[in-house]
Amino acid sequence: MPRFFRRPASRIPPEILPPDFLTRHGLARRLYLEPLTGLTPPHPWAPLTDAEWEALAPHLAATGCGLRAPGRAGRPLADPRARLDAVFRAVTLKRSNAEGGGRAPWRALPEGFGKAETIARCHRRWAHAGLWGRLLRAVAARDAPPALVALTWRICCAFRRAVRVLGLAAIVLARRLRLHSALPAPSQYLPDPELAAITMPVCLAAARHMLAHPRWRPPPGFLRLLQDFHRFAGGLVRIPGALEPP
């Protein structure tokens, strides 16, 4: 059992660490099970089918990404379907193991899809417009059409490529939707503000107890537990690109 889930042997007052704390918050599931069970199997890239494009087009129109919905400003793209195909192709490219693995750079996009800089800029612009977050929510919905569900892996790849643009809120969203392939690294290596909110009351309760009982000292196992809380909530400073989900 990981040290994180070992309750310190010395007695800790239940007002600091309730006996059911780990199970009540589902920390084993959150930190170890969901990062594995929430991965979407990859599949070979292929051009969008008519059914897939029909499922995607309303979302592009609603966010003003390539298609213009009634009442929205902006110039539509000449071929938004081809542009989306190019984005999906770029974000699903991987480096070989000899090159270190992980995502391939934008410049690896084959020339037939257009200029890599243009596709990368379009991807970032659509991220700011909210397209990737909207699509991620759409594929996670219970009533998502099969044609859209078939694109889950590609949408996850596009979303995780935009995490740096979208910030911490994107990581929180992917976790809440349990689409861990949309994260740029295994979940337990990334910042987790919700975990921090869960564990902070334990730290505050321990501090209050020490003030009220000056002779009480927390057992070493409890201090290590708090360190683990901090480590999991804060994430790693540097994460190798090879750890990106497939």
UniProtKB/TrEMBL annotation:
Pfam families: DUF4096. InterPro entries: IS402-like_dom (IPR025161). Residues 48-135 form the Insertion element IS402-like domain. It comes from the Bacteria. This is Transposase.
